[in-house]
Amino acid sequence: MDDALTEPEIVALTADHMQAAAEIRRVALWQRLPWLPDLHTPEEEEQYWRMHLLPNCSILGAAMGNRFVGVIAYGDNWIEQLYVLPDFQGMGIGSLLLGCAKEEMDEIRLWTFQHNAGARAFYQRHGFTAEEETDGADNEEREPDVLYHWRRLPERTPDLQPSDG
């Protein structure tokens, strides 16, 4: 089997990639949570990625062949976006993208919807704990959500043995 087909390449995304990033989010979100209201056009979502996320976040994409299949936007101890196309979920792509963020931040917070059981299980497997649940009044979808938190554990140092000195 060709490794290029099984191992995604992680690349830093630029303004030229924002349409693809926004599309990954739309497809992943509405295939998994079809009841959510579709509040923005694809063009509005691309503008959000280009004008808000790109200047304020590190944005990485997971490419397989010549196609982006996953995306993460993170910075300032927050994951703003993390999506993998449904046909590519369960292949370690989300874990790879999340690992990139964990390498750069000692603690991370993120929001996900309470009804997104797949995302909740994913974050819990990666050491995140639920910190707060809301009724959704503060998000534009008005969907109950949950705040997750992860903190890097301190490195263990070997116990020092007292000297006989």
UniProtKB/TrEMBL annotation:
- A Pfam family cross-referenced in the UniProt record is Acetyltransf_1
Q: Where is the composition biased (Acidic residues)?
A: 130-143
Q: Keywords assigned by UniProt?
A: Acyltransferase, Transferase
PROSITE patterns named among the record's database cross-references: GNAT (PS51186)
Which residues are the signal sequence here?
none
Basic and acidic residues bias: start-end ranges: 144-158
Q: Which residues form the N-acetyltransferase domain?
A: 8-154
Q: Where is this region: Disordered?
A: 130-165
Q: What is this protein called?
A: GNAT family N-acetyltransferase
Species of origin: Rhizobium indigoferae
Which taxonomic lineage does the organism of this UniProt entry have?
Answer: Bacteria, Pseudomonadati, Pseudomonadota, Alphaproteobacteria, Hyphomicrobiales
